[in-house]
């Protein structure tokens, strides 16, 4: 997402996230990076100091949100001079006892064994092993391919599929607007 | 309870260097029971294959709090 300055680009990147997450939970976004890092530094963004955060009207269900991003100089003039690019994410829906139900991951370094965005379905939702013919699969270990997932996708899923109560009546408009904006500017 | 009042946006908290280091240290300790220096040593040496994937990715996303991870830039 673009801006005339690095700060403006970061603001245009984080504001929709603040608004979209605010549709289903209360809390704060935690942002930081090592000040000694050379520019362009990689920044860490998380929800409530990395803690699982209960969803509105559903205190047994929690969201954990983490991202890395970086501000890049596009070399273009004006309001497109600087742009924020996402460098990885992990969004997880968890239960009270911290068991993960769904985990959306993307780490282009391949930390978890794949460089592509994917989904894990937690052990709570699946048998740990299934047998097909002579093959045995551990479904929770599958990297189920996804496109790049926007946080708006996760918020919308929580409301429409998991009965989380939205905190504002115009949540659909907010999520659609923020996601459209995100998709317009994302780099891939 | 739904509200039409659009004061639902989340605030941003900027972590200081010390707060960032503390957050990283605490999470590494919680997940692995080791210090962050030891975690980074194992990370650099590729010795963390046994760690659960979600924990590994979480900690990898936190590394920029304490240093630049060149492999990602």
Helix content of chain B: 40-55%
What class do helices, strands and sheet pairing of chain B give?
mainly alpha
Overall geometric form of chain B: globular
**Cα distance, first to last residue of chain A?**
12 Å
Weakly predicted, low-confidence segments of chain A = none
Helical amount of chain A = 10-25%
Please tally the β strands of chain A and state the result.
11
Q: What is the mean predicted local confidence, pLDDT of chain A?
A: 90
* SS class of chain A: alpha+beta
- The number of helical elements of chain B comes to 3
**Order of SSEs of chain B, N→C?**
EHHH
Radius of gyration of chain B: 16 Å
- Head-to-tail CA distance between termini of chain B: 43 Å
Number of helices of chain A: 3
Provide the low-confidence segments of chain B as ranges: none
Summarize the structure.
Chain A is an alpha+beta fold. Chain A is built from 3 helices and 11 strands.
């Amino acid at each position: 997402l673009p801006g005339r300055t690095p700060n403006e680009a970061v603001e245009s990147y984080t504001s929709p996230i603040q608004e979209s997450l605010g549709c289903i939970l209360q809390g704060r976004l935690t942002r930081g990076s090592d000040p000694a890092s050379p520019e362009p530094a990689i920044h860490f963004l998380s929800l409530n100091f990395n803690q699982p955060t209960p969803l509105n009207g559903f205190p047994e269900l929690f969201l954990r949100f983490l991202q890395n991003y970086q501000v890049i100089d596009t070399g273009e003039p004006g309001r497109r001079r600087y742009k924020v690019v996402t460098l990885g994410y992990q969004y997880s829906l968890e239960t009270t006892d911290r068991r993960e139900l769904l985990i959306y991951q993307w780490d282009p370094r391949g930390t978890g064994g794949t460089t592509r965005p994917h989904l894990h379905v937690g052990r709570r939702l699946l048998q740990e092993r299934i047998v097909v013919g002579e093959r045995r699969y551990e479904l929770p270990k599958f990297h189920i391919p996804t496109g790049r997932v926007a946080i708006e996708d996760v918020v919308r899923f929580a409301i429409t599929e998991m009965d989380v109560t939205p905190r504002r009546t115009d949540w659909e408009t907010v999520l659609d607007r923020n996601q459209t904006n995100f998709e317009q500017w994302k780099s891939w | 309870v739904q509200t039409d009042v659009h004061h639902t946006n989340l605030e941003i908290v900027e972590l200081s260097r010390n707060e960032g280091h503390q957050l990283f240290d605490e999470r590494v300790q919680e997940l692995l029971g080791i210090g962050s220096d030891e975690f980074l040593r194992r990370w650099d040496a590729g010795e963390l294959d046994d760690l659960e994937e979600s924990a590994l990715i979480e900690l990898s996303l936190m590394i920029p709090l304490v240093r630049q991870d060149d492999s990602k830039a």
